Amino acid sequence: MIPYGRQDIPQADLDAVMAVLKSDFITQGPAIPAFEAAIKAQTTANHAFAVSSATAALHIACLAIGLGPGDRLWTSPNTFVASSNAGLYCGADVDFIDIDPVTYNMSIDALAAKLEAAERAGTLPKVVIPVHFAGQSCDMERIGALRDKYGFQVIEDASHAIGGDYRDQPVGACPHSDIAVFSFHPVKIVTTAEGGVVTTNDDALAERLAMLRTHGITRDPALMRNAPDGPWYYEQVMLGLNYRMTDIQAALGASQMTRLGAYIDARHAIRARYDAALSDLPLTLPHQPDWQRSALHLYPILIRDDAPMDRAQAFDALRAAGIGVNVLYIPVYRQPWYADMGFRREDFPAAEDYYARMLAIPMFATLSEADQDTVIAALHDVFG
Ligand SMILES: *Cc1c(COP(=O)(O)O)cnc(C)c1O
Prior knowledge:
With 384 residues, the protein is of the alpha/beta class. It has helices spanning 11-21, 31-43, 54-65, 82-89, 108-121, 140-150, 203-212, 247-257, 260-278, 311-320, 336-339, 349-357, 369-383, and strands at residues 47-51, 72-75, 93-96, 127-129, 153-157, 165-166, 169-170, 179-183, 196-200, 217-218, 235-236, 283-284, 292-293, 299-303, 358-361.
């Protein structure tokens, strides 16, 4: 089976991990700041904090902003459940904005309309989480303008998007957001096995994020309430968590980051071949707006009405042909945990239509030309 996504772990990564295992520190040593420096260099953000997962990153991002009971968090339904679960962890209410039928990201027109209605009703959100689906940035200038108008805060869920650009700036630079979050799960662009990072340019948020990932503890006297009574002294000044990344993971991540540009170029070469080879099939291929360069985490295809098979049949036929297609995402409001909150499918017509048609086909940096050809031939067999 050719998987839809796969990590690449060459000898250099193994050497970097082994060096940490043989060193004095296997967690909270020098590999963490080295990995964070690589993320800051890539994103140009002022601050980057490595954590145990993007889920943890989303959680402390919400906590740092002060999201709590009675507050509202809005996000896209076309995402992994972690984007909205972060709001629930904080006791906030969660709502979803339908997607744009061309980009599959949160519809900014729908967001603008919902904000206008919420302002009248006195139900504005505290946090909006745009998700850069498949590595394609949302139009952050427009979201930033709405943020300024309505006064919410923006956490970019950039789990798919390390190495992507938005209007000639790297995703994670945060010119139109408060915080950006990346995932380093093995299926994403670069990996630390499990891992996440938050970036921000806001010094006050950075101070809180740094403490929230490690129990709410600080060793910086400037942040303490009392004078230190010795060099051993630390203070817990808020309720944080143990969301730290290990040095073993950070070393893997730093080694992976040296190949980020090559990874994104390889994904674009595969996209170009797919675009050309699949254009005559009854499929909607992923649109790429010219004001961004996607990190291409996924290559989503949508099955048109004139195709000989529906999505379920095509899924089975392609899996039988050894193509590890996947469906991403089941709209979050369909999950029983969320449906129990009263969400109705009729309120999300674009997400419903997308979910009925979507397949992700293999897309990862080391996918060989021979395997690309196998994928292309299988798609022609099924849809030709
Ligand atoms: C993978 C993913 C997450 C969660 O990432 P973890 O690192 O596995 O916690 C969150 N949001 C999106 C959009 C993702 O794809």
